[in-house]
Design brief:
Pfam family, one: DUF7226
Structural class: alpha+beta
Organism: Selenomonas dianae
Largest sheet: 7 strands, mixed
Radius of gyration: 23 Å
Strand content: 15-25%
Helix content: 25-40%
InterPro entries: DUF6996 (IPR054265), DUF6997 (IPR054266), DUF7226 (IPR055650)
Protein name: Transcriptional regulator
């Protein structure tokens, strides 16, 4: 992919910063207020301001430790702000649940949206178990105004706390459930990410914290690869944006997730090695995110730029992960003259991603172990109980006729993916 392609948001923000001398204003005043009408000259405001993950920040924001938050229905503040929070994992176990027998309109094999995922979580008892509340009733959801509130947010360049006032900014709540003891507000996503925008929890929390006497519990809900990930947070200081603390995390599945190591060993023993494809050897360490990409492409055919703008991938990662999925035969691309390539699931990819949890994961293992170097590293792990060293993996890679790998450093960088994918397969048996 050409480095000159760039993201549309990068180009739009670069032009806006130049026109309004944004960096000079921030240096002088500590922040810059930009209106939707000013943004619309360069690109649709909702696209420019939709930056759900740190990795999606435009380059000029990243270089200058900046973030953007809405402060009214048509205005945003740009400043040195710590706006994002990394996800943490507290619990690796998976709790098996199921839908009630009388429910016919929900199908766990066809969860295609956040709303359906939440409905399945409610019907299966996931929410009752996680929220530990009784008589849950769906209440406030959808778009609404924020009202007026002020808060402090951590400055990213020093120890100072920036003060911000919000007046009737538009927010959207994916779901909220009130029980006997508390109101739980849910932000839901269908793709895995390393972090999230705290605003998605904080603004709804501030609204309802001031309106009701019950405790308000912000919940982040992620459904991906057949697993419901639920994170419960608490703002230790309601007036401080960065005071959130993860107090509980659990994972649930509607399907049997038990996979035996012997099943993967059998695949390794019986799977025939394929000829290495003329596709860059993978540099995509998170196999869970590769699966998440396949789930995305099962719904949409997208360019790398669209993947990077809509989901938690930057442009380079979108390139790496689409190529990794192509390497395994799960994804292909179509080219149309000078237009960006469109990526789509192959028939093999669709069959795998639309199968049940166990079939899907064993099929992914098969796709990996069809490649010589992965099979050899997995076999070494089984024989000796530890992974080969990086130097040993590089030697195995050098003897596996990989496409267009030349330098020693490139082999070493790509060896991390070999280790990561083999480790992922082994961890499947430990859930």
């Amino acid at each position: 992919m050409s480095n000159t392609t760039g993201k549309q948001n990068d180009r739009a923000w670069e032009s806006l910063f130049q026109k309004y001398k944004v960096l000079s204003h921030i240096e002088k005043d500590g922040s810059f207020i930009v209106s939707a009408s000013q943004m619309r000259v360069f690109r649709e405001p909702r696209l420019m301001a939709k930056i759900d993950h740190k990795i999606n920040l435009p380059e000029i924001f990243t270089k200058n430790n900046l973030a953007i938050l809405p402060i009214s229905r048509g205005e945003y503040i740009i400043a040195h702000m710590e706006a994002y929070q990394p996800f943490q994992t507290l619990d690796h176990t998976i709790t098996k649940v199921s839908l009630p027998d009388h429910i016919q309109s929900l199908d766990v094999a066809r969860i295609s949206s956040e709303a359906i995922a939440i409905n399945c979580a409610l019907a299966s008892g996931i929410l009752a178990d996680f929220l530990e509340d009784e008589d849950l009733i769906a209440t406030v959801s959808g778009r609404m105004g924020s009202g007026t509130f002020a808060f402090g947010i951590q400055n990213t360049t020093n120890d100072a706390v920036n003060r911000i006032t919000v007046t009737n900014a538009q927010i959207e709540i994916d779901a909220a459930f009130e029980g006997i003891h508390r109101l739980s507000i849910i932000e839901a996503k269908m793709d895995l990410a390393e972090d999230f925008l705290i605003r998605q929890l904080y603004y709804p929390y501030r609204i309802w914290h001031s309106r009701i006497t019950k405790p308000v519990h912000p919940i982040f809900f992620v459904y991906s690869n057949g697993i419901c990930h639920l994170y419960e947070y608490q703002f230790q200081n309601p007036a401080y944006y960065n005071s959130l603390e993860l107090i509980k995390h659990k994972r649930y599945s509607f399907e049997d997730t038990s996979i035996q190591l012997s099943e993967i060993q059998e695949i390794a023993a019986n799977t025939q090695t394929v000829t290495e494809p003329p596709i860059p050897f993978p540099q995509a360490d998170s196999f869970e995110r590769l699966i998440s990409l396949c789930e995305i492409l099962n719904i949409h055919t997208l360019t790398c730029e669209e993947i990077s703008e809509e989901y938690a991938f930057d442009l380079r990662q979108a390139d790496y992960y689409t190529n990794a999925a192509r390497y395994l035969g799960l994804v292909d691309k179509c080219c149309n003259n000078d237009l960006p390539s469109l990526f789509y699931l192959t028939a093999k990819g669709k069959k795998i991603i639309n199968s049940n949890y166990k079939q899907r994961h064993l099929a992914f293992c098969t796709a990996i172990l069809q490649h010589e170097v992965f099979k050899k590293v997995f076999t070494h792990y089984m024989d000796f109980g530890i992974s080969p060293t990086i130097q040993e993996i590089v030697k195995l890679m050098q003897g596996s006729h990989l496409y267009n790998l030349k330098s020693e450093n490139t082999y070493k960088r790509r060896s991390s993916t070999v280790i990561a994918w083999v480790t992922w397969m082994i961890k499947l048996t430990q859930s």
